[in-house]
UniProtKB/TrEMBL annotation:
It comes from Polyporus arcularius HHB13444. The keyword Transferase applies. NCBIfam families: lumazine-synth (TIGR00114). It comes from the Eukaryota. This is 6,7-dimethyl-8-ribityllumazine synthase. It holds the Pfam family DMRL_synthase. Keywords: Riboflavin biosynthesis, Transferase. It catalyses: (2S)-2-hydroxy-3-oxobutyl phosphate + 5-amino-6-(D-ribitylamino)uracil = 6,7-dimethyl-8-(1-D-ribityl)lumazine + phosphate + 2 H2O + H(+).
Length: 203
């Protein structure tokens, strides 16, 4: 057993995700790690009661694109009755966790979508030999914070900023060594449900 004190304590009350609608926006860089993180996030969202049909998964090219996508999803979800996430982002690939199809779902003209209660931004940045990593880490973290403060919708920071491939793999629970690590997507799902529930109470 590890004697580390790191990691989140459990929430003070039982989480109930059943009334919530959550968007996951993920980048496609470093895909094996992204896939594990997205799967861990979805599994934990469902474990708290979030319904399949209330989880929208959207991909963008890289982490730098995450803040704009989160912002568009949040603002679009309020005003575009019946639009799918794909429509809101102008045709980027949308993945429903059930179908995993790249074909946009039909637009339901009479059924307005609920707004998103939380958005989880997932990216994996791995340091290279230039300053690129530092610039993207800094700008993306600031921009995601800005989106949540500007919109009032919780934006969960699911961006790994790893110095090595192994650090990234271990934080997705797929480490190459004996210790597989821990899938941080699970923590991000819990943070999303907790913050979304708080936000409903605070509204
Ligand atoms: C260009 C780039 C590089 C070098 N590394 C990563 C990375 O490790 N993780 C990531 O999510 N994205 C990376 N990108 C892509 C940028 O985030 C962005 O998509 C492009 O610069 C286009 O704006």
């Amino acid at each position: 057993m590890s004697d580390s004190i790191k990691g989140p304590a459990p929430p003070p009350t039982k989480l109930d995700g059943s009334p919530l609608r959550v968007a996951i926006v993920h980048s496609r860089w470093n895909k094996p790690v992204i896939d594990a993180l997205v799967a861990g996030t979805i599994a934990k969202l469902k474990a708290t009661g979030v319904k399949d049909s209330n989880i929208v998964v959207q991909s963008v090219p890289g982490s730098f694109e995450l803040p704009l996508a989160c912002s568009k999803l949040i603002s679009g979800s309020h005003v575009q009755a019946g639009a799918t996430a794909t429509d809101l982002l102008g045709g980027l690939t949308s993945l429903n966790p059930n179908s995993r199809s790249s074909t946009p779902a039909p637009v339901a003209a009479t059924m307005p979508h609920q707004p998103f209660d939380a958005v989880i931004a997932i990216g994996v940045l791995i340091k290279g030999s230039t300053m690129h990593f530092e610039y993207i880490c800094e700008s993306v973290s600031h921009a995601l914070m800005r989106v949540q403060l500007d919109t009032g919708v919780p934006v969960i920071f699911g961006v790994l900023t790893a110095l090595t491939d192994d650090q990234a793999l271990e934080r997705a629970g797929i480490g190459r060594g004996e210790n597989k690590g821990h899938n941080h997507g699970e923590d991000w799902a819990l943070a999303a449900v907790e913050m979304a529930s708080h936000s409903r109470l605070w509204a």
